[in-house]
Design goal:
single chain; about 160 residues; about 50% helix
Length: about 160
């Protein structure tokens, strides 16, 4: 189900493995709070998750009809989010620089639209890459670097 902001899953606002790890940690803390009779699960989540991510999850829960006041509903919802996040395939992207967030978001959105809608990106920086990137997906590496192109041309000369 899509809400008024077009958000229909956690993958609409979690792009990288780093963001994923942070959210998993926050959700696990929130789920553990279910044993505290004085603390709501979503209050615990708000203490551990980034504000923007917390608000996105809260909105998603509301749009899906999940009660933020019901501990059991919140825990069940968050457990499903954990399953989704922990099972997401990862695209390894090695670049010569660390891209801006808008670039990460744009590339991830393109990747998800064209390749896999529920994947995460792990960005690595290798300053030895002159230009381009190395893409690793499903145990296959594709070097799209200037260095690789030069090496291939030198070998064929």
């Amino acid at each position: 189900m899509e809400n008024k902001y077009g958000i229909k899953s956690v993958f609409d606002f979690v792009y990288t493995t780093q963001e994923c790890a942070e959210l998993i940690n926050a959700i696990e803390h929130a789920i553990e709070s279910k044993y505290d009779s004085k603390l709501k699960v979503m209050e615990a989540l708000s203490e551990h998750a980034a504000y923007v991510v917390y608000k996105e999850l809260e909105q998603l829960m509301s749009d899906l009809g999940v009660s933020v006041d019901s501990k059991q509903e919140a825990v069940d919802f968050l457990n499903q989010i954990l399953v989704d996040l922990k099972s997401a395939p990862v695209l390894n992207l090695t670049l010569a620089f660390f891209p801006e967030y808008s670039q990460i978001k744009a590339f991830t959105n393109w990747w998800r639209k064209n390749i896999n809608p529920k994947s995460l990106i792990r960005i690595k920086v290798n300053h030895k890459i002159l230009a381009g990137a190395v893409i690793e997906w499903q145990e296959e590496a594709i070097p799209l670097t200037l260095q690789n192109a030069i090496d291939k041309n030198l070998i064929s000369v």
